[in-house]
Amino acid sequence: MALQGLNSAALKAGDPEPAQLERGKFRLYNMRFCPWAERALLYAAAKGIDVEIVNINLQDKPEWYFEKHYQGKVPTLEYNGKCVIESSLIPQFLDDLLPENSILPKDAYDRVHQKILAERNLAISTAFYGTLAALKDPGLREEKMATMNKALDDAENLLKDTFFGGKSPSYADYLTFPFLERTWWASHIEGVTGYDKTNFPCSKRFPKLTKWFNEMLARPEVAQNLMPVDTALAFLDGYRQGKPNYDEGI
């Protein structure tokens, strides 16, 4: 399994559209620092799918990309001349298309429960972007950190086993990880979260999430997608200034 082009330069307005994809092949339109796109990347990697990655400059999008996604967002999965959008739907499409190694459980209740867990953990994403906002307005830090702690407390309480999927990762694990990863990035920025960057997120307050995060880091499908923290921080610095460098680190 390979994610080809994971660190390729982002295509922008004026760049030509990639060649037509062969039938039976997968292409994922991505942005290297986007947590939503990473959800689809992790899922494809966990299923062992060969995927061609095409990175998109989200501030200067190629004109043709709007034919793939009507809003010009990522991720978009292309397969057999058709496109599937939305980071929660692409994984479900892949499981429906390739049911022999479905990550979503077969049991109807367990299946919908995984989707509910993933939905509830979206609060971590909102909280992460809130902590970045507090960098511009330190007066917001206490409020934004209370929101973050609440989101992580809730996730801690939802985690009943090694993974949200039980003894092995499932849908909710792969769709939640990118948001915890970005909170880990934020822990390296002085004065943002106060979490221990060497033992994320905080072994004392969130022991189950800490163990879960380290278990996820050890997974090969996660390890191959990890962004170096220094590269991520450089991107976040530009992002906060309204000048994101989508090719940071390549």
Order of helices and strands: EEHEEEHHHHHHHH
Number of helices in the DSSP assignment: 9
Q: Tell me about the largest β-sheet.
A: 5 strands, mixed
Q: How many beta-strand segments? A: 5
Helix content: 40-55%
Q: Which range does the strand content fall in? A: 5-15%
Alpha carbon gap, first and last residue: 22 Å
Mean pLDDT over the residues? 94
Structural notes for this entry:
It is built from nine helices and five strands; from the N terminus they run ββαβββαααααααα. By secondary structure, the protein is an alpha/beta fold. Strands 1-3-2-4-5 form a five-stranded mixed sheet, covered by helices on one side. This is Glutathione-dependent dehydroascorbate reductase. Its EC number is 1.20.4.2, 1.8.5.1, 2.5.1.18.
